[in-house]
Design a protein that fits this description.
EC number: 4.2.1.1
Number of strands: 16
CATH architecture: Roll
CATH topology: Carbonic Anhydrase II
Pfam families: Carb_anhydrase
Catalytic activity: hydrogencarbonate + H(+) = CO2 + H2O
Enzyme class: lyase
InterPro entries: Alpha_CA_prokaryot-like (IPR041891), CA_dom (IPR001148), CA_dom_sf (IPR036398), Carbonic_anhydrase_a-class (IPR023561)
Bound molecules: zinc ion
CATH superfamily: Alpha carbonic anhydrase
Number of helices: 5
Helix content: 10-25%
Number of domains: 1
């Protein structure tokens, strides 16, 4: 037991050192949310990031004039799981061990990680929310589907609290949670806006199925400030639609 604990401590320290080295001044490709390596320049930082500037189906978007269709409410089959909460230098990420997933028309996707942006990256009719969570899913073919959950300021959110309490303050830090049940974070209505987009961080990979829940959930001002104390602004600006349509169910 003692040996294991020692091993874990050493791993944590090494991870911290590597991250510090990675963020060194000689790494000009380190992307960020402010100039000179901010969103306007991501596409030029590295050839692998070129889609960030040349892509035609990028995310996030301002959701307007969604077309009403018969999309079913999101079909979720999440289960409680152990998880890590890590500070990766761009956001706080929750990575479960085995937390179930979702089923879309295109098939089943496993839940792989969740992270946060402030303010929300998605806009709805021009409105920004103070926080969003992106629940990233992957199918057997490696294709991605993201569920976006919007937060508005209001009541204390007891489901979010253990995650916020575990957030490592420094880049490279990792904490462990015995039980995360992402299903409890979701609103009562699982109606979604659906559109095809991309990762909102480099390399801005396209072909991502976006499912933005139409109903926000709440968090308290204190909870929002706890996240913003670590990341005051980590949202990519909205991207051009370029003729894409957004569908909405319900
Ligand atoms: Zn995201």
């Amino acid at each position: 037991m003692k040996k294991q604990l020692l091993g874990a401590t050493i791993t944590l320290i090494v991870a911290g050192l590597c991250t510090t080295a990675w963020a060194g001044a000689d790494d000009t490709a380190a992307w960020s949310y402010s100039a000179p390596n901010g969103p306007q320049n991501w596409g030029e930082l590295k050839s692998e990031y070129s889609l960030c500037s040349s892509g035609k189906t990028q995310s996030p978007i301002d959701i307007r004039d969604a077309i009403k269709t018969d999309i079913e409410p999101l079909n979720v089959a999440y289960q409680p799981s152990k998880a890590t909460v890590s500070n990766n230098g761009h956001t706080i990420q929750v990575t479960p061990v085995d937390a179930g997933g979702i089923t879309l028309d295109s098939g089943r996707y496993s839940f792989v990680q969740m992270h946060f942006h402030t303010p929300s990256e998605e806009m709805i009719q021009g409105r920004t929310f103070p926080l969003d969570a992106h629940l990233v899913h992957r199918n057997a073919a490696g294709e991605l589907a993201v569920v976006a959950l919007l937060f508005e300021e209001g009541a204390h959110n007891p489901v979010l609290e253990p995650i916020l309490a575990a957030m490592p303050k420094h880049t490279g830090g990792i904490a462990h949670l015995d039980r995360v049940n992402v299903a409890q974070l979701l609103p009562a209505s699982l109606n979604t806006y659906f559109y095809m987009g991309s990762l909102t961080t480099p390399p801005c990979t396209e072909g991502v199925r976006w499912n933005v829940l139409t109903t926000p959930v709440q968090l308290s001002r204190a909870q929002l400030e706890a996240f913003q104390a670590l990341y005051p602004m980590n949202a990519r600006p909205v991207q051009p639609l370029n003729g894409r349509s957004v569908h909405v169910g319900g």
